[in-house]
């Protein structure tokens, strides 16, 4: 049994950059602010253009020094060492993630850190079995030809990650990129640099060859993010974040035609049929709307409920929302943390206000909780349920990325499918029904990368993950990640 770390114990008062196996602490610094109470819990060193150049050169040098040529067994041994060391420093990761995000201890312990570790283990296992193909071809002389593919690393991979699941989403990219023989330059979100800093420490502690993992901190435009994504020495970009940021990165990458993998925003729908297991559907929808304060790209922001159960469903969902306890991450009673920042809270609150202007009924929430203590300087908002909006309302169309959903009644299956798909996004959908024939009929009609039936945020990590429309380009997960981070080359031998 590990002890519960106090997030206030997070000791990283200075988060540096890590380039070519060296920690760099010189440079302009910015604040790492706790969304719980607005206090500064660390200072972060911003990487300037020169340091980003050095990071890209260090990554290239690491590949040339032999990282890309290591046998797959040798590379996955490094991945397993990283996972082992993360397990030893589990509490440090928990404390760092809580300090940056304010999310509840139970969530960090059960989701963020275990998945961060699992990402290294699963890609270590899968990389060993990542098959190269071979084909025999007949030739007129009867001797034939043998064609085979070899998988080669892409080279220097830029990893740009968001703040909502900082460790989980960063390692989801770093692990397969390294397994495939690439070197990485990681730019974590400016809001959540702490766990990336710890991962750099771990790479250093275990003696990972210098330059294989590099960390540059900073912002997006005109800062480390843009310097990296427009860098001619970067061979590929993997990015998770907002769709508009994806467009900007695509423009930056266009000049050198870099391969990109994008996991972007969502405006995900749940469809609840009257025949669903009512309690399971309400619990599942509450979880999919409010988990991580609604800051998961897969979160449900639009709920379509069959008319006979609409009012009962909205009432039950309201009870779930009202039962959530906002608070400090290390308080065992807390079930909902703050949003990531007061800046993001302003965006979410602007949608709460807009919803009223657009004619919504606010079933519950719509404002901020008042604590009467230092948490009032944090970024908390009330979980919010809306009804009564037109399907064309901006609050129904645009990603809010907070603990909020709009619930709409529907009369028939076709109606529900049409409304669920009437969005520019296409990441995830959840279908709640006890009619399995209907479930299997409706699921493939969802214009999304994943559809859940009677569950949410559950999947085997070998499955493809990603979105359609504005929600992304490409798939990550299992062999799909290894495929992105490798370049297959065909060799044909005349026999
Ligand atoms: P964001 O796009 O603001 O930032 C993500 C990262 O991109 C940060 O590291 C940021 O510094 C960097 N960045 C910003 N502008 C850049 C630029 N011009 N060039 C290079 N880098 C730049 O996203 P966020 O606010 O951190 O995360 C929330 C968003 O991410 C939501 O839209 C959410 O839906 C999306 N998201 C999607 C997935 C998915 O798997 N599809 C997962 C998590 C989050
Ligand atoms: O579970 C995952 O692998 C994954 N990429 C989740 C994304 C969540 C978005 O916030």
Spans of at least 5 consecutive residues whose pLDDT stays below 50 are: 1-5
SS field, number of helical segments = 15
Mean of the pLDDT scores?
96
Annotated CATH architecture of the largest domain: 3-Layer(aba) Sandwich
Descriptive terms for the model:
single chain, Aldehyde Dehydrogenase, Chain A, domain 1, Aldehyde Dehydrogenase, Chain A, domain 2, 2 domains, 6-stranded mixed β-sheet, globular, binds nicotinamide-adenine-dinucleotide, binds (2E,4E)-2-amino-6-oxohexa-2,4-dienoic acid
If you had to describe this structure to a student in words, what would you say it looks like?
It is a single chain. The protein is built from 15 helices and 21 strands. A hairpin with a 2-residue loop joins strand 2 and strand 3. The chain folds into 2 domains: about 5-265 and about 470-495, Aldehyde Dehydrogenase, Chain A, domain 1, CATH 3.40.605; about 270-460, 3-Layer(aba) Sandwich (Aldehyde Dehydrogenase, Chain A, domain 2). Helix 4 (about 105-130) runs parallel beside helix 5. The chain has about 500 residues and is of the alpha/beta class. Bound molecules: nicotinamide-adenine-dinucleotide and (2E,4E)-2-amino-6-oxohexa-2,4-dienoic acid. (2E,4E)-2-amino-6-oxohexa-2,4-dienoic acid (6OD) binds next to helix 5.
């Amino acid at each position: 049994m590990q002890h519960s770390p106090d997030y206030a114990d997070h000791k990283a008062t200075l988060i540096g950059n890590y380039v070519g196996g060296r920690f760099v602490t010189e440079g302009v610094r910015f604040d790492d602010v706790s969304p719980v109470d607005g206090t500064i819990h660390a200072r972060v060193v911003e990487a300037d253009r020169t340091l980003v150049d050095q990071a890209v050169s260090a990554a290239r040098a690491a590949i040339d020094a032999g990282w890309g040529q290591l046998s797959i067994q040798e590379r996955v041994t490094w991945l397993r060492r990283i996972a082992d060391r993360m397990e030893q420093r589990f509490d440090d990761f928990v404390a760092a993630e809580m300090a940056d995000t304010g999310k509840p201890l139970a969530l960090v312990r059960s989701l963020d850190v275990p998945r961060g570790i699992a990402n290294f283990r699963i890609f270590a296992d899968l990389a060993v079995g990542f098959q190269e193909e071979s084909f025999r071809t007949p030739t007129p002389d009867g001797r034939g030809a043998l064609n085979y593919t070899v998988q080669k690393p892409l080279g220097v991979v830029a990893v740009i990650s968001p703040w909502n699941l900082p460790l989980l989403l960063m390692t989801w990219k770093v692990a397969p990129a390294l397994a495939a023989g690439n070197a990485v330059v990681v730019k974590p979100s400016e809001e959540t640099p702490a766990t990336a800093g710890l991962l750099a420490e771990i790479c250093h502690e275990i003696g990972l060859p210098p330059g294989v993992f590099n960390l540059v901190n900073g912002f997006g435009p005109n800062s480390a993010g843009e310097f990296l994504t427009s860098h001619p020495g970067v061979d590929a970009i993997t990015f998770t974040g907002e769709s508009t940021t994806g467009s900007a990165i695509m423009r930056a990458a266009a000049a050198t035609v870099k391969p990109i993998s994008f996991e972007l925003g969502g405006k995900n729908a749940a469809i609840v049929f009257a025949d669903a297991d009512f309690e399971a559907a309400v619990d599942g929808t509450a979880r999919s709307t409010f988990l991580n304060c609604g800051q998961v790209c897969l979160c449900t922001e639009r709920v379509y409920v069959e008319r006979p159960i609409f009012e009962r469903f909205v009432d039950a969902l309201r009870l779930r929302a009202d039962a959530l306890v906002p608070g400090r991450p290390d308080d065992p009673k807390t079930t909902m943390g703050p949003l990531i920042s007061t800046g993001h809270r302003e965006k979410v609150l602007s949608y709460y206000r807009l919803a009223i202007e657009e004619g919504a009924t606010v079933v519950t929430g719509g404002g901020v909780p008042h604590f009467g203590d230092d948490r009032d300087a944090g970024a908390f908002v009330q979980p919010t349920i809306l009804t009564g909006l037109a399907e064309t309302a901006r609050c129904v169309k645009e990603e809010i990325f907070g603990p909020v959903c709009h619930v709409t009644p529907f009369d028939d299956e076709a109606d529900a499918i049409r409304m669920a798909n009437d969005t520019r996004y296409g990441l995830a959908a959840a279908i709640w029904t006890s009619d399995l024939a209907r479930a299997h009929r409706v699921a493939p009609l969802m214009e999304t990368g994943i559809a859940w039936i009677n569950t949410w945020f559950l999947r085997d990590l070998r499955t493809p993950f990603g979105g359609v429309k504005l929600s992304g380009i490409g798939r990550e997960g299992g062999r799909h990640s290894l495929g992105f981070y490798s370049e297959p080359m065909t060799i044909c031998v005349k026999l």
